[in-house]
Amino acid sequence: MAIELVRIDDRLIHGQVVTTWVKQKRIEQILIINDDIVNDPVQKSVFDMMAPQDVLVKTFSIHKFIEVYHKTTIKRRTLILLTNSVDALALCQGGVDFNTLNLGGMKNKPGRKQYTKAVSLNEEELKALKMINETGVKVEIQMIPSEKILTLNDLERNEK
């Protein structure tokens, strides 16, 4: 399987992703899966510019990615970026195979509870994470590779 990392980070491509995860996992392509960004040429071009020159960036809607995933073999070392756990659950339920879901930054905003310095969730997002976890996918909270990994159980105990 060429999917090296599935990550939720509401900033998507930024310095932390490029300088740590892309290098550590030797990523060759980044797939942004988001129904809003797929229709926003300005955001798409910004993300293209933020990625290293040798890393291909593609954007898909959730439905389109699931469709393409089942028709095409992913051959490049791939980082899938999402903005929330509800979309990650849709991929999981759509048959996209991944063993681990990495939670990066999910900023605190109205309607969300803060669980760690970088991760805040609303009820729907927390429920989606629990459902993903129940399928056997490990949910790990880790901003950068050198940080200690927290589990979903750790996250719930850490509610601030």
Task: List the topology elements.
Blueprint: E1 3-8, H1 15-24, E2 29-33, H2 41-50, E3 56-60, H3 62-71, E4 78-82, H4 85-93, E5 100-103, E6 113-114, E7 120-121, H5 123-134, E8 138-141, E9 150-151, H6 152-157
Parallel strand pairs: 1-4, 1-5, 2-3, 2-4, 5-8
Antiparallel strand pairs: 6-7, 8-9
Description:
With 160 residues, this protein is an alpha/beta fold. It has a single domain (3-157), classed as Phosphotransferase system, sorbose subfamily IIB component (Fructose Permease, 3-Layer(aba) Sandwich). It is 36% helix and 22% strand. The chain is built from 6 helices and 9 strands; from the N terminus they run E-H-E-H-E-H-E-H-E-E-E-H-E-E-H. It has helices at 15-24, 41-50, 62-71, 85-93, 123-134, 152-157, and strands spanning 3-8, 29-33, 56-60, 78-82, 100-103, 113-114, 120-121, 138-141, 150-151. Strands 3-2-4-1-5-8-9 form a 7-stranded mixed beta sheet, with helices on both faces. A two-stranded antiparallel ribbon has the order 6-7. A hairpin with an 8-residue loop joins strand 8 and strand 9 (150-151). It is globular and about 40 Å long. The termini are far apart. GO terms for molecular function: kinase activity; protein-N(PI)-phosphohistidine-sugar phosphotransferase activity. InterPro entries: PTS_IIB_sorbose-sp, PTS_IIB_sorbose-sp_sf. One of its GO terms (biological process) is phosphoenolpyruvate-dependent sugar phosphotransferase system. It comes from Candidatus Enterococcus testudinis. It holds the Pfam family PTSIIB_sorb.
